């Protein structure tokens, strides 16, 4: 079997990292991978170890109609059995049209829970033999919008539990982030965009500091809200407790040393940073949004209503004051990740979808 993967992300985190995990796992199972990605994309580095070919293409977004022709030429050249479209922006509709015209079965990964107009969703998703959602919450959104249930399959995202382990280099951590030995640390790992809900945590932080003065908040990630968040931190006198740390590619060293990870998102497909933190044995506080409850459940952390700073404050303070509960939740979170979100389970789930699609072709299943 040869699978043509289309990934439009330029950075190797989030969805692009899941694509790499998938291609590596498929290659170990004897599947041939061909990768189409933007020129200069990080996912292309080292991809020759698990891809037959890596084909950088110009990708101009949803309005780049010529991308259809470029992708169509690639399909005719490499003759894939299945096309797997991993990105929404600039790849889903255009890639689906190219696959339809090439006569190749197409599978789409859906990683976000953003609602779409129901009439559009019913038409759009008919381009694909299957839509793979990374959470049951996203699957429910699509079915609610009128997509045929048998067309939508949930295969959760995965985390590398060997890379993300509960082993903290305490001296390095304190030196790297300028921390005192007695300080507790709360992390946030998310793009700096509105739907990740950083503002809700900032609203809760003064009350948290009042209850737990020796606490430091580290915000990891980058995005268009950086200047706005930085200004708010200064204006509200939080600079001594809150720091924007930017993007880090060594989270496997950072996460195990956190006392707590908070994810105050208003919308979230699943939350890879939550999986990584849970794999490191870190207790979680998350908003009850999208697929977040599927990670936290009843035993790996605390769920709060989205957009509710007082609830965030109570949950964080309660956990910071209770080290035994933090340890218990962290251990349960790692067990949960190992059981439900392994790379092998994710690869096998996607492979089953390919096999079902090929068994159903040329129909639309």
UniProtKB/TrEMBL annotation:
GO MF: hexosyltransferase activity
UniProt keywords, alphabetically: Transferase
Domain of life: Bacteria
Domain Glycosyl transferase family: 176-336
InterPro entries, per the entry: Glyco_trans_1, Glyco_trans_4-like_N, Glycosyltransferase_grp1
Glycosyltransferase subfamily 4-like N-terminal domain mapped to chain residues: 14-163
Keyword Transferase: yes
UniProt entry tagged with the keyword Transferase: yes
Protein name: Glycosyltransferase involved in cell wall bisynthesis
Species of the source: Ectothiorhodospira mobilis
The organism's taxonomic lineage, starting at the top: Bacteria, Pseudomonadati, Pseudomonadota, Gammaproteobacteria, Chromatiales
